[in-house]
Amino acid sequence: GKHQWRCSDVVFLCPDQSTCEQWVKAISNQITLLTNRPKRLLVYINPIGGKKQGKWIYDQKVAPLFHKACVSTDVIVTERANHAKEHLQTEADLDKYDGLVCVGGDGMFSEIVHGLVTRTQNDNKVDLNDPGAELARPSLRIGIIPAGSTDCICFSTVGTNDPVTSALHIIVGDSQPMDVCSVHHNNSFLRFSLSLLGYGFYGDVLSDSERKRWLGPARYDLAGVKTFLNHNYYEGTVSFLPAEDDVSSPRDKLQCRSGMCLPENTKQLTSTLLMPFSDRRDGWKVINGKFMAVNAACMSCACPRSPKGLSPAAHLADGTVDLILVRKCSRIDFFRHLLRHTNKDDQFDHVFVEVHRVKKFDFQPRNSETVSLEDLSEKSTFTPVCPGPCTCNCGSAHSSWTCDGEILPHIAIQVSVQCQLVHLFARGIEETQEQQQFVFEDL
Ligand SMILES: CCCCCCCCCCCCC/C=C/[C@@H](O)[C@H](COP(=O)(O)O)NC(=O)CCCCC
Ligand SMILES: Nc1ncnc2c1ncn2[C@@H]1O[C@H](COP(=O)(O)OP(=O)(O)O)[C@@H](O)[C@H]1O
Ligand SMILES: [Ca+2]
């Protein structure tokens, strides 16, 4: 139930020892022919992610399954932030492995993607600082064993945050391509975004929650309430290149499900994504405004807090990102909007919310081309800063961007989608026929 997989034993009875041996041999031969199945994995465990259970989860729930399935592993328990990223970038002998495993949350997964993708670009002499560069795709798939605070990438690609289910998807060698957003500041690469890139509300929640890391996952709830009460808005300009209107829409209610986002279904999308930066202003739209939040969701961002996600119809691997603009509104309206993330109501059905499916976008804060993290850290990043003494929320302050739970050092950013850059050991969210029927009836 609920997308959870479990192991099951099947007992074969046979009349004699030699038949039994024949069967064992035949089954082993058949399994060897399944080339999708990984045989050697490199596992990174973040021991401090989420409720600090990563090592226990791996040892108790995952390692015994890998052992049963004859998957051999090298395990690294990280000793500090960026340990896994640096190891992947410079040291790891990747030819030895059929895949990587991340035991941790979205931040840890982001580290591993950064390490692997950077290594691949270095090997292929691709310049990450060039926003128009065609990035080389890593050959190794990555499995996620959820052991973080939000684990939205696991939830959005598997349908549940369950270590046993994820381990079984790895063992059977599932493969799910995934879009990645690259984020630049001028011509300098900042980061990849895999789930939520958020300015305003979520940026403020993340800035505040980092100071409360000792609280574990509950830090987001406390910071969320505080940020909600602050009710800040921020001015800026969003420019974006919309995806073709006839392909799909963030409001079409067609949720991304297993088998939808595969390379053969989305081939035509990749070619349009490689236009050099200078040629791209045709067809761009520009929106100026005062925003409570500017969110970019590369996937639905479904998680236990929001089971349908920030953008329920976003696709995992279609080469687009859903850009959600929440304009300045009253506290009660913003509350209604947030509440709709937790139930079946449509969070985009408000006059102050608009959502666009885009291939690229830029954000420019008002009056602040040069604001950097150093400037921000001198002030409170979630308290508006007025030119003179002021108690009002005048919107002259800057927020910061959260990128998969990490704060970006710049506010003016350029974002473009790298279609199907990485592959996961997953197959997308599976749905029974009755569940699909239910979606169509809703439509
Ligand atoms: C009145 C009730 C309001 C409830 C609002 C709930 C809205 C939840 C939307 C959640 C979107 C989550 C997008 C995921 C982002 C993660 O990548 C990031 C880092 O994850 P991890 O490393 O595993 O901790 N997590 C967040 O940004 C947390 C956002 C929480 C906001 C309340
Ligand atoms: N051993 C470690 N000590 C401290 N920080 C670490 C360690 N290993 C990884 N990290 C960092 O911890 C951050 C949060 O990890 P994550 O697994 O996403 O947990 P959470 O979901 O609780 O934020 C990541 O940004 C990662 O870089
Ligand atoms: Ca997408």
From TrEMBL:
It comes from Periophthalmus magnuspinnatus. PANTHER family: CERAMIDE KINASE (PTHR12358:SF25), SPHINGOSINE KINASE (PTHR12358). GO terms for biological process: ceramide metabolic process. It holds the Pfam family DAGK_cat. InterPro entries: ATP-NAD_kinase_N, CERK_C, CERK_PH, Diacylglycerol_kinase_cat_dom, Lipid_Phosphate_FormReg, NAD/diacylglycerol_kinase_sf. GO terms for cellular component: membrane. This is DAGKc domain-containing protein. Coiled coil: none annotated. Residues 36-187 form the DAGKc domain. Keywords: Signal. The keyword Signal applies. GO terms for molecular function: ceramide kinase activity.
